[in-house]
């Protein structure tokens, strides 16, 4: 990564619509495609994409069916992506991203992730699905993969205000059939700082009935 990329500010990315995701996921059948497309109403992907460094080699932890990687590739933001997730998600990602410069890996154990380093590591709405005892080492492993001058884009669902957090708990119980464990933003920030990264941007924002928390951090070149 060159010096000029270090600290590059956010790009201007147009709002991602449900129909953008619908076009991307044409290999997905029936309700799965509709559910994935509807995610645009919950999660403004452009708020994440705008922070991806130019021509980055991206590592997407808990990539799901590959929407973020697909959007980044279709917009020419990245050169290559590596995604890791459970088998069922990776099977969908393989179909959606067939022919693209991506490597898709099955696994839940962070000890088996590629060592990197990567220009950009993304982790979007994953930590609350990780068991509490594993959350801290999972965060540390993720930060470790960010190369010098590279960027971490971390987003998760907020644990407050409580009525929204409760609603999201219910959402995950129905949609993912999982009882989630929030990872508070203070802990996420502390883990990122402990790993030697510098926070560039932090925000909490609401979309519909969902509160999100986002941290963008960078590993200094001199480390
Ligand atoms: C809410 S989905 C988000 C998917 C994707 N990041 C997105 O924003 O569309 C959470 C994902 O985290 C994955 N996940 C949960 N625990 C994981 C682990 N230990 N390793 C890798 N992926 C995991 C789930 O399988 C699921 O695909």
Can you offer a commentary on this structure?
- The structure is a single chain.
- With 223 residues, the protein is α/β, with parallel strands linked by helices.
- It has a single domain (43-218), classed as Rossmann fold, CATH 3.40.50.150.
- It is built from eight helices and seven strands; from the N terminus they run H-H-H-E-H-E-H-E-E-H-E-H-H-E-E.
- A seven-stranded mixed sheet has the order 3-2-1-4-5-7-6, with helices on both faces.
- The protein is globular and about 50 Å long.
- It starts with 17 loop residues before the first helix and ends in a 5-residue tail after the last strand.
- The structure holds S-adenosylmethionine (SAM).
- The site of S-adenosylmethionine has 15 residues, from helix 4 and strand 2.
- S-adenosylmethionine is lined by residues 62-64, 67-68, 84-86, 89, 108, 124-126, 129-130.
